[in-house]
Design brief:
9-stranded antiparallel beta sheet, about 30% helix, Pnp Oxidase, Chain A
Length: about 240
């Protein structure tokens, strides 16, 4: 068999097996978490709202090894099929190797969570559970090049959280040479979302009396964790 025949055979093999290469390339990534039907949320506007609100995320990649980085982000809803996430990591972070547009990643937006006591239900003979809400988005993150694009990303990210915090820090007032030096220490990136998964385990499948009891008792339940202020204060007070 000559080279032409060999190449023809290789290209024809997927079709002979009933495979569609273009369909495979455009296929959604494998699910990143288990979601029972009762907890699946697919309302994209609702999920985008959640991502905007809980925008401090876990960036998960497997290059150069399994890595997780915790960063703030912002979302462009109309960019791409499901939106595009923007953020940055340290230039010293080995995870930057995964930001070349070819490596898959999952970004986890995690909302509130808490223990749910059976004492809160109308039906008492059940076991405790833990309610929570998360959105996972999958894609292939890519570095953003150039000082102008990097500064624009930082300005938008800072403005988002300054606005949410009700504070008045003015990023634009910083000296240009200072900002340029600081920008050398980060790697900005964007990730167009290839798949979006919403898991909201909030007891919505339970009877009305149980749901009412959960909402009522969560108002007065003791917190399981310290607030950021409490944790920071205790951490500073360590000997």
């Amino acid at each position: 068999m000559n080279r032409r025949q060999l190449l023809t055979g290789v290209l024809a093999a997927p079709m002979a097996l009933g495979l569609d290469l273009e369909a495979q390339e455009g296929a959604a990534p494998d699910p990143s978490l288990y979601i029972p039907k009762a907890h699946l949320v697919e309302d994209r506007a609702f999920l985008h709202d959640f991502m905007d609100e809980y925008a401090f995320v876990d960036l998960v990649t497997t290059s150069p090894t399994l890595r997780i980085t915790h960063i703030p982000t912002f979302l462009e809803r109309a960019s791409g099929r499901f939106g595009t996430v923007f953020g940055h990591i340290s230039a010293q972070n080995p995870q930057r190797a995964a930001l070349d547009g070819t490596h898959p990643a999952v970004i986890v937006f995690r909302g509130p969570h808490g223990y749910i006591s059976p004492a809160w239900y109308g039906k008492k003979d059940v076991v405790p559970t833990w309610n929570f809400a998360v959105v996972h988005v999958s894609g292939r993150p890519r570095m953003i090049d150039g000082p102008d694009a990097t500064r624009a990303l930082l300005a938008r990210l800072i403005r988002k959280f300054e606005t949410k915090s009700g504070t008045s820090y003015d990023f634009d007032s910083l000296p240009a040479d200072y900002v340029a030096g600081m920008m050398k220490g980060i790697v900005p990136f964007s990730m167009e979302i290839d798949a979006i998964e919403g898991k909201f385990k909030l007891g919505q499948e339970r009877q009305a009396a149980d749901r009412d009891g959960v909402v009522q008792h969560l108002q007065t339940a003791k917190p399981h964790e310290r607030t950021l202020r409490e944790l920071t204060e205790a951490f500073y007070a360590r000997k």
